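Kindly inspect both lines:
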Amino acid sequence: EDFEKVIARGKEGTYYIDDGNELEFFEIIDLVKPDVIFTGPRVGELVKKLHIPYVNGHGYHNGPYMGFEGFVNLARDMYNAVHNPLRHLAAVDIRDKSQTTPIIVRGAA
């Protein structure tokens, strides 16, 4: 009944996944091509492999996402996810000597 209520509120073109498996998540991610994903830890581990920034909505260690202060927390976490320098390094195979990817350390003189 709750799922039907959610679908009734959705707009045309919205995708709904109820307890999806890895293949379903990969298909939706390939179809939608999101800039950032707001999810739980299980899907977060999958999108890390695709080098897509994500925010763990179930991780309350950064504060709640409720109210004005919560929106500030969410904006900070989204910014940190998108601009995380480690996300770009994740695609680099450090065993491959032919790849030359400079490591930039911000804030260092």
About this structure: The first strand starts at residue 37 and ends at 39.
